[in-house]
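Sequence, please.
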């Protein structure tokens, strides 16, 4: 849970901007978006596998580029 205190003489705009940054850094926004719709466990595994494959491919490209 994100909590913050409004500072003395802090405008509403500044407080809202600071709050948005806190929410973004905490990962709460990403978590809410991820949980918005149900995702089957097989889809979660598939997404993780594809992400790992992309990571491996980019690592291989970086190795061959450095030669």
């Amino acid at each position: 849970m994100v909590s913050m205190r409004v500072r003395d003489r802090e405008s509403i705009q500044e407080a809202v901007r600071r709050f948005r940054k806190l929410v973004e850094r905490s990962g709460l926004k990403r978590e809410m978006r991820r949980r918005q719709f149900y995702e089957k466990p097989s889809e979660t595994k598939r997404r993780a596998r594809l992400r790992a494959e992309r990571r491996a491919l980019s690592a291989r490209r970086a190795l061959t580029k450095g030669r």
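Residues 50 and 56 are 10 Å apart (CA to CA).
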